[in-house]
Amino acid sequence: MVRLLALSSYFYQSFAAVLLIFALGYLLEPAQYTTYSLMIAVSQFAAVVSFEWIQLAGQRFLSSSNGDETIRLRSSLFSALALSAFALALVASCGAIARTEAASLIGLGLAVTVVQGTTDLHYMTIRVSGRLAPASVLMFCRATFLVLGAVVGAKMHGTAESALLGLLTGHVFGLAAGSIVDRQLLNWSPRQTRRSDLSGFARYGMLASGASVVHLSAPILIRFLIIGRFGIASSSSAGFSMALDLLQRPFSVLLSAIHTISYPDVVARFDNDTRAAAQEAATDLFDLAICTTALMLGGLIAFIPDAARLFVPPALAPSFIAVTPSVALFYFLHTHLQSTLALIPHLEKAAMRLIFVAACQLALIATFILIGAAAGLGSTATLLSAGLATALVIGFASGPTLRFGAYPRPGLALSAIVGATFVAALVLLPSEPLPWLLAKAAAAAFITAAIAWSGNLLKL
Fold first, then answer.
1. Could you tell me how far CA 303 lies from the centroid of its own chain?
2. d(Cα 150, Cα 161) in Å, to the nearest integer?
């Protein structure tokens, strides 16, 4: 049941993020929403650059540690966080000096990035210590704080700055709640930090996070190119930005949940058990990752148009609905390339391979986008070309996973694909009157539950 609680906490975070996007779409003017969206994208990019390497190193090294070694490693992780936050503050200060008119936005973005990175690291140390239930409850609480803070800020002043300030407040409350549940961060002592630990984190984590930075550059490149084509103040840019914001979260959150549940066990078996045991644990992770995200892709295609009619402002709805299927397909492929296919290279600490794969994806996407721009393709065709580029890279990058001998059970994966296709086809059925919509939702839920039950995906 703890696995179910952990998975539910990530689904709740995804739901809260979707709710927040819809709410801000109504509360902010299109130009303000686009500014907020761009600032959040930059903040997330900065978080990956500054703190992702610490997260990756912490998960890899803490998962198989115990006793005094665990205490020392945690201290070194928090010290690495402090050093990285200081470096980020210096860079942000230079940016604020260069662009004084955007100093307040840069300052708020910096604060959001640092507090979010600190909270994420603290929650991660709680999870890998075996306290999955408290960490899941904390994620429920933080997601609620973020929605309330950002909505209240946007409602009061209607600006991107006020929404960011509310978001920052939510992260602060989340950090405070984590410190009440677990005092590791409050009891951090820099004297326990070892240079050898920092060096080990840097050697593995920075290379691995370098791949994440390159992967994150792909959607940012797509975002800026398409917004540059339509203009920052247009409703088309706001609708496209909303689609990117909305559909990025479900896949990344779900795969993060699956890694939270299964990754520590995979690492422990890889480091301390037989190869067969590690293969079995990795196969369980792949089963859960592929099946759940395939069904989610089908559900998004089926029900996003209904959600748009109910929640998206009318001025943004046409451009939003037009791009959602291609955005969903791109993020499905993108997150699996970034997370699922990276599992075996992470276990083998082959971080250079991760960077090479990410660079190939970015280069191929850029090439396809430039060709599409020369041919005058629209935003939907641009996103489909990016998805095609990502699929080609997935095909070439699957070698280590196949050689390791861990991959989803073919029958289960096929049933998930067929089920997802049926769910996606529900978009062709009417959604009015209300009983039709409820019937569609019940059918999708039945298909999802049947596949989860037949594959015993949650190991209940």
1. 21
2. 10
Q: Using pLDDT thresholds of 50, 70 and 90, give the confidence band for residue 458.
A: low
List the structure tokens of 226: 């398409």
Helix and strand tally (H, E) in the chain? 17, 0
Provide the b/e sequence for 359-371 (b: ≥16 CB within 10 Å): bbbbebbbebbee
Q: Which of 33, 36, 42 is nearest to 319 (CA)?
A: 33
- List Cβ neighbours of 212 (8 Å cut-off, separation of 6 or more): 48, 52, 56, 338, 358
**Contact in structure between 154 and 24 (CB atoms under 8 Å):** yes
Closest by CA position to 297, among listed 289, 308, 285, 306? 289
The rounded distance, in Å, linking the Cα atoms of 383 and 365 is 9
Helix, strand, coil percentages (3-state) for the chain, rounded to 5, are 85, 0, 15
Residues 6 or more apart whose Cβ sits within 8 Å of residue 407? 283, 286, 401
DSSP SS3 for 393? helix
pLDDT at 80 over 50: yes
Please give the model's pTM, rounded to 2 decimal places.
Answer: 0.71
pLDDT at 91: 82
Mean per-residue pLDDT, 65-72: 71
Query: Comparing 18-22, 105-109, 127-131, 448-452, which segment has the lowest mean pLDDT?
Result: 127-131
- Cα 161 to Cα 36, 106, 107, 157, 220, distances in angstroms: 8, 10, 10, 9, 21
Taking a C-beta distance cutoff of 8 angstroms, is the pair 39, 167 a contact? no
Omega before 433 cis (within 30°)? yes
Distances (CA, A) of 85 to 49, 154, 265: 11, 27, 30
Who's near 67: CB < 8 A, 6+ residues apart? none
The token pair that represents 143 in the structure block? 């997601």
Cβ pair 329, 298 in contact under 8 A: no
Give me the chain's average pLDDT, please. 81
Instruction: Work out whether the CA dihedral 438, 422, 416, 393 comes out positive or negative.
Output: negative
By the 8 A CB rule, do 182 and 122 touch? yes
Q: What does the pLDDT average to over 283-296?
A: 88
C-beta pairs of 301-304 under 8 Å, 24+ apart in sequence: 301/325, 301/328, 301/423, 301/424, 301/427, 302/423, 302/424, 302/425, 302/426, 302/427, 302/440, 302/444, 303/426, 303/427, 303/440, 303/441, 303/444, 304/246, 304/247, 304/328
Question: Under DSSP, is residue 398 helix (H, G, I), strand (E, B) or coil?
Answer: coil
